[in-house]
Each structure stands twice: as C-alpha cells, then as structure tokens.
C-alpha cells in the first residue's frame, strides 16, 4: 500500500457532489474510506475556500470531522475536540500580510469597486468594512471581471485573487491552496511524495501540482482546467461525481484497500 500520510481535499464539489437546490449529496463510501485511512494513520485536511464558520456549517451535515481545516485558501486550524485551534505563527503571518496588502492596494481596490459597481451586475462582498470579494451573476460575467482584474493588478505586485466559479476572493499573492498545503506539510514533517490532493475548481489549481502533491485527483464534475492539471500531473480524473469520484480515485491510485480491511 502507498505510504500516504496526508489528504488535502476540497469540500464543495469534491468531498460532496455539486449542490442540488438546498441538498448536498454525501458519499457514505467516502466517509467510510476517510475513517479507514485515519485509522491507518493518514491525516485528513479539508482545504477549502470556506471560512471557519462555514466549515462548521458544512460539518453539521457531513459526518466526518477532518484533522485540519485549511480555510479561505490560506489559514490553518487543527481540530481540537469540537472546536479548532489556530496555527498561530502561520495565521498571524497571513493576517499581517493581508493587512499590508490592503494598505498597499487601497487605491487599486477603490478603482475596482468603482468599475464593478458601474459596469457589472456583480455583488461586492465586504468583511469588517473591507472589499474582500465579488459574486458575479454568471460565469461569463466572472470571466470579464477576471480579464479586468488581470489588466489592473500589475500595479500592486502582491495583489491577487482566488476564483471558485462565480465567486472570487482578493488575496495576497503568496497565499493560495498550494501554499497553505505546503505550510501544513512543513508543520507536520510530511513531504509531497506522501500527499494526495483533490479538487474541482479554479482555486484548487495551486495545490494540484506534482511538486506539492504526488497523488492528484478530481471528480468528473471538475472544470476543464482542473482535469487538464490533474492529467498533466499524472493523476486520476474520475468518471464519478463528488465523493464517489474521490473513492474511485483512491482505489485506482492504490491508496486505499477494501474498507473492511
């Protein structure tokens, strides 16, 4: 059996299938496999664009609690009973970097807000008074927003963003799902050759690279760019959706045996 020590799993669209209205489809087979792998010593991290509060909401209906939550594509929290303990050094560096970014990019963000307010139907998302993200009406509108941002962000070297479908969050260029996974690997003393990563959308691309995770996978509902990245990394593109796709990938990549084993 492969020496697998760490799973880095996106949640929405990967651990669960894409939402159908108010209902999320949960794969019991995935839950069984995650429990089996944990008993064998594998660490499970949910690597998500969700905030910690939204991770807790997800775990109200998903019957498996990960060992780590890597939130908003940049922060690290360790499970501590029914709560979470922040990895202080990493999270403080992340917070300070973003505080500085918002100071450096204040004029740029004002220009972005004006452009989006006057020329798009997108909704602006704020936290603590900051413009932190955008919600487009549809994917084509987000494509146009991305094109505009790419033409403007060169004015502030560290200004970047993470996209997930019609959702977008501004961020420091040093932080993404790949960087936060590397931060967790360093914390745990785990190398890429012992790591499995799976995702389905744009913001998962930074972790779906062989230099970060030896074993890569995505479900069939993934965007074209993710499937291409996984194939490029010699990973596995499942023909099943969400969690069932993850189970298929784990079995195909020989990372898990029968759940009764």
SSE arrangement:
Layout: E1 6-9, H1 28-39, E2 43-47, H2 52-58, E3 68-71, E4 75-80, E5 83-86, H3 88-104, H4 106-119, E6 123-127, E7 130-135, H5 139-152, E8 159-164, E9 167-172, H6 177-188, E10 195-198, E11 215-218, H7 224-232, E12 236-237, H8 242-252
Parallel strand pairs: 1-2, 1-10, 2-3, 10-11, 11-12
Antiparallel strand pairs: 3-4, 4-5, 6-7, 7-9, 8-9
Helix pairs in contact: 1-8, 3-4
Could you describe the 3D structure shown?
- The chain has 261 residues and is α/β, with parallel strands linked by helices.
- It has two domains: 6-73 and 176-252, Rossmann fold; 91-172.
- It has helices spanning 28-39, 52-58, 88-104, 106-119, 139-152, 177-188, 224-232, 242-252; strands spanning 6-9, 43-47, 68-71, 75-80, 83-86, 123-127, 130-135, 159-164, 167-172, 195-198, 215-218, 236-237.
- The strands form two sheets. Strands 5-4-3-2-1-10-11-12 form an eight-stranded mixed beta sheet, sandwiched between helices. It has a four-stranded antiparallel beta sheet with strand order 6-7-9-8.
- A hairpin with a 2-residue loop joins strand 4 and strand 5 (83-86).
- Helix 1 (28-39) packs across helix 8 and helix 3 crosses helix 4.
- The protein is globular, with a radius of gyration of 18 Å.
